[in-house]
Each structure stands twice: as structure tokens, then as C-alpha cells.
Design a protein that fits this description.
By secondary structure, the protein is α/β, with parallel strands linked by helices. The protein has two domains: about 5-35 and about 185-330, Nucleoside Triphosphate Pyrophosphohydrolase (Alpha-Beta Complex), CATH 3.90.79; about 45-170, Nucleoside Triphosphate Pyrophosphohydrolase (Alpha-Beta Complex). The chain has helices spanning about 5-15, 85-95, 155-170, 235-245, 310-325; strands at about 45-50, 55-60, 70, 75, 95-110, 115-125, 140-145, 180, 185-195, 210-215, 225-230, 255-265, 275-285, 305-310, 330. Strands 8, 9, 10, 11, 12, 13 and 14 form a seven-stranded mixed beta sheet that branches. Strands 4-1-6-5-15 form a five-stranded mixed beta sheet, with helices on both faces. The longest helix has 14 residues, at about 5-15. The radius of gyration is 22 Å and the shape is elongated. The N and C termini lie far apart (about 45 Å).
Amino acid sequence: MDSTAKIMEENLEKILKGEGLELREFDLDPEVKPVTLRKNVCYIVSAVIFNSKEEVLLVQEAKRDCYGRWYLPAGRMEERESIVEALQREVKEEAGIDCQPITLLLVQEQGPQWVRFTFLAEETGGSLKTTAEADAESLQAQWWDRESPLPLRARDILPLIDAGIKYRRNPCFPALQPVDFPCHVICQRLFITFVSSSGTTDTSDEDRLWLLLSNNNVSSHPSLPIEVSVNTYISWAAHRLIKECIPSSFAFINIIICGILGVQHNGRTPGKTDGICFNTLVLMENSEGRPEISSPPPLESDSYRWHEVTNQSLRAKIKQRIKDGSVLPVQSQY
């Protein structure tokens, strides 16, 4: 194996482990201006925390539009914060306790309006906020058994609580924390895969797997494409890039956003490092009813190429993540 292939495989292994990689050249829209927190981008954090009885932590809202109702500890990130620091601050301010994240549980987005990071976390100290400590952040906090009547601010927290319960009982993806890598825009490193069957009866070991690589990174070796997100942060970036690569075949391909392998963020320098890179696993496959093909669709752009993964260990890891859905879920709220 030459040094370029070795470096590429090492980087792919890092991404599969939830680690980050330095951002270099971007594919498509390279001139997009940096995002600035609280000006043209909004990040929200929320926490799902359980006690030993599997009761969930809720806080009673002090805001005028939802006064007295109950919700998960949540709020907007502030300047110079990491995502985890924002989580810990919000939980402390609203609930009175200290916490440590166990894993990101879900990422949700609503176009360019906001991105919400929900964590499964655990209590590490402090004490529940009482009514005597009520302030502009919240009125009080308490543990909820999920059955006793309680006026909720919104029912959108119920699926988040359910996801936390399920993950505690059976983790469906490796624990994932944001990693500290600076980025000036919201973008995605796209881990785009194509799997084809060998046509034999024993397909589990014989299926072939390709990755879409970018040739645009002129300062180094071919790498996974990185696309700047414009109108939507996560949902349609892969669609747009794939359409750029295979316009003639695009209508005959299903594009499945499997989920997120990693989240990269720094945020220490306002207006310069407020961006986020989502390392996103994507599966391309034939549309239903069309004949199986033994190789990925031909590319119509010299900026990209297909790379067949022949390293059996690496190929097995990628295929297993796809098969098991072992990735951080992402949802678009439209």
C-alpha cells in the first residue's frame, strides 16, 4: 500500500471512531462567508438526564410565553462556548446540578434557523433548583416519572426522553462527543458509500464497497468531499453534491442519509470559528425496481472519483455501521 492510500485509510478509521480531521479545501460554494453565532446561526443544546429510578430531569419555565410549564434543560449557545460547555451551563443555570455528557443523542435542524444538539448526560453534583431559587432562567427543577400529570411546554421532548431510555438500555451507536476542530462555516464531510453485491450466494463477505473521493484537495491526497451547507445544514448537502457528480444517473439513485459519524466545533473566536463540520455517512443505492449494478454510476465530473475499499477490516466496519444504523441520528424539522 502506498503512503497516500495508507493516510486515507487512517483518516477513514478516525472518522469512524468519531474523531475529527482538519478542514482544508471545500467542494462547491467555497466563497461562503463565515457564520457568526447569534447573528446568522443559532445552536441549541438540551439535556436528557435520568436518576437511579429512571426519572428524567425537567425544569419549570420562567419565560412569559410558557410560564409554569415543564421542559428539558435547554437553551442557546453563547459566544466562545464549546457545545459541551453550553450544555453544562444551561443545566446548571436551569436545574442547579452539574452534569457530564455521556453521548450526543440526536441532532435536529430547521433549515438555516437553528440546529439543536440533544445529549444524554449524567448528574455529577449540585442540587436541584428549588422555588426559593427561582430566577429568569427557571422556576425550579424536579425528577419526573413520565407518568404523573405535568403540563409540558411542548411534547417534542417525549421522543428525546424515549431515545435516552433506549440508549441507556441498548446503545445503538458508539458514544459520541463533539471534537475540538475550528471551522468558519457550517459544512459536511460526506462519507458517501456505494455497495454492490457480487451476485454470489454468499454475499456478506463478497459485497464490494466504494467511497466517493474529491480530487479538489490540491495540497494533499484525495479525500472525502467537504461541502459547505447553505440553505439547509444537513439534509440536502449530499443530494446536491451527488447530483453534481452524476446528473445523468441522479434520477435512478436513492440517497440515504444514514446519520452522523462525528461533530467538529471550536467556537473560541467569535465570527471566525463558529462553524460546525458534520461527518456524515451516506448510502447510495439503486432505485427500487431497477436492475442491480455491479459498480457505482459513472461520474461526470473530473473533480471526483470512486475509490473501492479493498481493506477487508475497514470495509467490514463501514458495512456494519450501515447495516446496523450505528450512527448518531439526524432529523430535519420542516
